[in-house]
Amino acid sequence: HILDKSKLFAINFSATQELDRKVTVLENKTKMLSEVINLRDTISKQNDIIANLETKIAGLMARVTQLETSN
Fold first, then answer.
1. 3-class SS of residue 2
2. CA–CA dist 53, 15 (Å, integer)
3. Residues 10-43: pLDDT tens digits?
4. Which of 22, 25, 33, 44 has its CA 20 to 30 A from that of 63?
């Protein structure tokens, strides 16, 4: 058997390019997943803040109602 070095090189080069494309796609997916995780964390924190503010507003509204009815 005789190896055709130019064909072997072409196949190797093509395979390397394909692997590079796949690695790039995986890197991009990893970055996006990290962003999604960070955004979910931010949303969770904001939901906690909103819940806290809603509780405070409900307390203030109850106090206003109490003050209105006492006058």
1. coil
2. 57
3. 999 999 999 999 999 999 999 999 999 999 999 9
4. 44
